[in-house]
Amino acid sequence: MSGAGEPEVRLLGSWASPFVLRVMVALRLKVVEYEMQQETLGNKSELLLRSNPVHKKIPVLLHNGKPISESLIIVQYIDEIWASTPAILPSDPYRRAVERFWGEYIGDKFSQVIRVLRGSVPGDKDKMAGEMFTALQYLEEAFVSCSQGKQYFGGDSISYLDIAAGSHLAWIKAVEKISGIKLLDEARFPNLFAWADRFCAHPAVVDVMPDPDKLVEFTVKHAAMCAPK
């Protein structure tokens, strides 16, 4: 249990992290009150190191003092603990498996492309952009299949896959500005483009989705911090 005066639900994270955004959206969908503890870049708190001693990374959800790590695991935990509607994971086992598959794919592919295009790790930017176009095409087709003509991957409401993919939208816009490469093009990916606007405007998302311009500023500051003195 949490100590006296401590919040029942606390989130250790950063406003700029797409993985932290996933958790915030899930909590807001379930109307769960939580306290956000911002972690400082390059200066991890003792609470974070103690709560996630294996990976030492955000996000970490503290529920009654008990830590849960890894963003998509946390999202599933939230869905199970606060079982009120809307459900985040589909009830159908096959649909649930499909959304989990795409969630893992997005986590692996999008993160690497974004790191290269923002310049935080070395890599061939043209090659990475090509890989991103392929990933977005797969996701465009997955949207048509999963949404069944409705507004979200989950149909009428935001689901696990909406959260997994939508968490990267602000960073995609930011790296478009940084790299000069248009990734989420309306003509090329019309369904995803329209879905992205709907997702960003959703009441559970709109107040916590980072501003792409602020992410560009964040990238510049991070690069300056990492530059040789």
What does this structure look like?
- The protein has 229 residues and is an alpha+beta fold.
- It has helices spanning 18-29, 46-51, 71-81, 93-117, 125-147, 160-166, 169-179, 190-201, 212-226; strands spanning 9-13, 35-38, 60-63, 66-69.
- Helix 1 runs parallel beside helix 3, helix 4 runs antiparallel to helix 5 and helix 4 runs parallel beside helix 6 (160-166).
- It starts with 8 loop residues before the first strand and ends with a helix.
Secondary structure elements and their pairing?
Layout lengths: L8 E5 L4 H12 L5 E4 L7 H6 L8 E4 L2 E4 L1 H11 L11 H25 L7 H23 L12 H7 L2 H11 L10 H12 L10 H15 L3
Parallel strand pairs: 1-2
Antiparallel strand pairs: 1-3, 3-4
Helix pairs in contact: 1-3, 4-5, 4-6, 7-9
Please outline what is shown here:
By secondary structure, the chain is α+β, with helices and mostly antiparallel strands. It has nine helices and four strands, in the order βαβαββααααααα. α4 runs antiparallel to α5 and α4 (93-117) packs parallel to α6 (160-166).
